[in-house]
C-alpha cells in the first residue's frame, strides 16, 4: 500500500518550522527545494507559503524583482496569545452586558409586576371569546333553520346575546381596571390587541 501524503496542515507546519529554524529571508525557489527534501511536494510549496502569508505567519517583502520570505519563531506564539487575550476580553465584555441586561429585566419586573394581572385578564378574555364563538354558531344555525324551530331558537339566541353583552361588560371593566393598575392605556390596548380584541371596534351586540 502506498504511503499517504502529508496533509495540508502538516505541510504548513513543515514549511513554517523550516523558516523559523533559519531565521533568514528565503527566495521562493529555495523554499521549494528545501521543503521538498522534508516531504512537501514541490508543486504545493507556493500555495503553502501563500497560505502562511495570508494568515500573517510568514512575512514577504519585494526587493527589486524578487520576493523574500521570512518568519520569526516567537511571532506565532505572540499572535496566538494576543488572539486568546482578545477573545477573553470579548467574552468578559459580553458576560458583563448579559449580566446588565438580566439585572435590567429583573428591575423592570419589580417595577411592573403585571404577570398575574395579565393572566387574570387572559382568563376572562378566553371565557368571553368562547362564549362569543358559541353565539356565532347559534346565530348561523338560527339563520339556516326551518320555520318550526325559529321561535325556540330566537329565545335561545336572545339569551346568548344577553350573556355575550354581560361578558362585553366584563371586558370593558377589565380594561378600566388594567388602565388604573398599569397607568398606561397604550400598553393595555396592546395587550387586548394581542388577545385578538381591537378596543377601537369592540362593542356590544345589538
UniProtKB/TrEMBL annotation:
Record bears the keyword Nucleus: yes
Function of the molecule: Required for proper homologous chromosome pairing and efficient cross-over and intragenic recombination during meiosis.
Pfam families associated with the record: LZ3wCH, Mnd1
Keywords: Coiled coil, Nucleus
Domain Mnd1 HTH stretches: 15-73
GO BP, one annotated term: response to ionizing radiation
Record-stated family: Belongs to the MND1 family.
GO molecular function annotations of the record: double-stranded DNA binding
InterPro entries registered for this protein in UniProt: LZ3wCH, Mnd1, Mnd1_HTH
Naturally occurring in which organism (per UniProt): Ostreococcus lucimarinus (strain CCE9901)
Protein's name according to its UniProt entry: Meiotic nuclear division protein 1 homolog
One GO term describing the cellular component: nucleus
Subcellular location: Nucleus
Keyword Coiled coil appears in the UniProt entry: yes
Domain Leucine zipper with capping helix: 148-205
Amino acid at each position: 500500500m502506498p504511503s499517504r501524503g502529508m496533509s495540508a496542515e502538516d505541510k504548513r507546519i513543515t514549511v513554517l518550522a523550516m523558516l523559523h529554524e533559519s531565521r533568514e529571508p528565503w527566495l521562493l525557489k529555495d523554499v521549494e527545494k528545501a521543503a521538498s527534501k522534508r516531504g512537501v511536494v514541490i508543486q504545493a510549496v507556493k500555495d503553502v507559503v501563500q497560505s502562511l502569508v495570508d494568515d500573517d505567519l510568514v512575512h514577504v517583502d519585494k526587493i527589486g524583482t524578487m520576493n523574500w520570505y521570512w518568519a520569526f519563531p516567537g511571532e506565532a506564539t505572540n499572535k496566538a496569545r494576543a488572539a486568546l487575550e482578545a477573545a477573553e476580553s470579548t467574552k468578559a465584555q459580553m458576560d458583563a452586558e448579559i449580566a446588565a441586561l438580566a439585572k435590567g429585566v429583573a428591575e423592570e419586573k419589580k417595577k411592573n409586576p403585571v404577570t398575574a394581572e395579565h393572566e387574570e385578564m387572559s382568563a376572562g378574555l378566553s371565557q368571553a371569546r368562547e362564549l362569543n364563538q358559541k353565539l356565532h354558531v347559534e346565530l348561523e344555525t338560527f339563520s339556516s333553520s326551518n320555520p318550526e324551530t325559529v321561535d325556540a331558537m330566537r329565545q335561545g339566541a336572545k339569551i346568548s346575546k344577553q350573556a355575550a353583552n354581560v361578558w362585553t361588560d366584563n371586558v370593558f371593566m377589565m380594561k378600566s381596571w388594567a388602565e388604573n393598575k398599569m397607568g398606561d392605556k397604550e400598553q393595555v390596548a396592546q395587550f387586548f390587541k394581542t388577545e385578538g380584541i381591537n378596543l377601537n371596534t369592540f362593542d356590544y351586540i345589538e
